[in-house]
Task: inverse folding
């Protein structure tokens, strides 16, 4: 998907909501658990119910790998279902991969070709040659961990060197990598106070912002600090939407929650003059 | 596997060799490619031929994920084959995972319970809560990326803050994490000149050392700088062993190469007085 197409979707749906598909069989309604593929069945109902309010879906690989081969079958089915039925949506494999160059290129092909998603989250520690293989695919994106939403973010990401913090160095250094126009960045909503300074370093790139909902980040604060001329934000909620109800009305409850967030997003998009 | 058991294996086999199973169907002998599961068939022959000279096997997940669900089926079969036939071997899933706490615990369960490997490589950028879930399993290990063998290692790992480089901070900080006695560390053989100083920070932990063979690191230098009272090293070769011959004698060629490396390792173990 081109960046322009992504922005068009944001304008059309008046939404920059990403729904995280972190599917745990223990948490899905009991009537689905005995189906042949409960993970896919749950995801399909969530997607069908929420797609009008959502621009991106983000399945997290950990939740699929947990179920072994069957989990990966479900993951593949979800990606195919999205690609066949909702081509307008941006699909993010939240995998946080990276490895030495020749190995990273296997991961990149796995996600961009074998599964055909639009973007993969990647980890910066191993540097340039671990990330560039993900940046070699037209209209595909690598979303680089920058400032994460978890408490452990403070262990290393704020280490200061030559007057800049590690996450700032990640932002700046990655600008020089081949294909850097296909980089997006993960910035946790719980770190919203840092988003304005991040925007100075990367005015144009999209940010994937997890951490609203269960993790406690503020959509208002993220939007005010992070929105650019193409919105430039994909704000994710996972558990807060997909497990809004644990009963048979889960899809309707997810839809209502997605709609509520979308309506708040529409206000911020309008205030910024983007819709 | 306990650390003592691992050291016993090293003494018995006079080897601290780890064989990386980075299996690319394009690179395996043509007579195997038409089998139902060429990846497993190739791995099985490599394992059967080399197991006497090897203490650890390290399948890299990127190479399996590349083939989608079929690749993960092969991965599972290889792990089961090793666990059933060669229980003495230490199995490392080279996956370089990490995520926020509740998600990392899914990855940990995937690898330690669903697949039942002994260790998983993990990435430090997200800090404590991303790694601790991997340290909660008895006799299982998380192998933390520290100083990697690739050129991109210089992008961030040497960033200096408060008089210490990032990789040194990773070593020191991780000592305080719950379950840190189950941490091992990835240090590339191409960075052997740094191993002596790393040993001062972590005298007892095992190091997983990739980068001899195709990547050009020196076994002699690594051994002299890194060996401790329990050896404390697992030195990996992947392509240099498994693709030593591309013909039907590939398993024999792999065995000869593994044996050659083992014989060199026996010298270093003997010089250190460990055998």
Result:
């Amino acid at each position: 998907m081109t960046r322009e197409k992504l922005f068009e979707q944001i304008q059309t749906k008046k939404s920059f909501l990403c729904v995280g598909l972190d599917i745990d069989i223990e948490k899905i309604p009991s009537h689905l658990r005995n189906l042949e593929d409960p993970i896919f069945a749950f995801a399909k109902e969530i997607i069908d119910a929420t797609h009008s309010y959502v621009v991106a879906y983000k399945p997290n690989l950990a939740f699929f790998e947990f179920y072994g081969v069957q989990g990966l079958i479900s993951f593949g089915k979800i990606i195919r279902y999205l690609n066949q039925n909702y081509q307008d949506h941006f699909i993010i494999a939240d995998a946080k991969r990276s490895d030495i160059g020749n190995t990273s290129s296997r991961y990149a092909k796995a996600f961009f070709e074998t599964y055909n998603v639009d973007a993969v989250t990647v980890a910066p520690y191993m540097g340039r040659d671990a990330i560039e293989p993900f940046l070699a695919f037209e209209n595909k994106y690598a979303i680089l961990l920058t400032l994460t939403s978890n408490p452990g973010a403070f262990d290393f990401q704020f280490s200061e060197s030559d007057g800049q913090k590690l996450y700032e160095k990640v932002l700046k250094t990655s600008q020089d990598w081949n294909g850097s126009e296909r980089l997006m960045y993960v910035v946790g909503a719980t770190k919203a106070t840092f988003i304005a300074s991040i925007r100075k370093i990367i005015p144009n790139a999209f940010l994937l912002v997890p951490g609203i909902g269960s993790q406690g980040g503020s959509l208002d604060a993220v939007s005010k600090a992070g929105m650019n001329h193409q919105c430039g934000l994909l704000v994710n909620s996972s558990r807060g939407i997909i497990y809004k109800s644990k009963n048979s009305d889960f899809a309707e409850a997810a839809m209502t929650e997605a709609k509520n967030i979308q309506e708040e997003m529409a206000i911020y998009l309008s205030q910024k003059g983007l819709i």
Observations:
- Chain B has one domain: 3-271.
- Chain B has a mean pLDDT of 96.
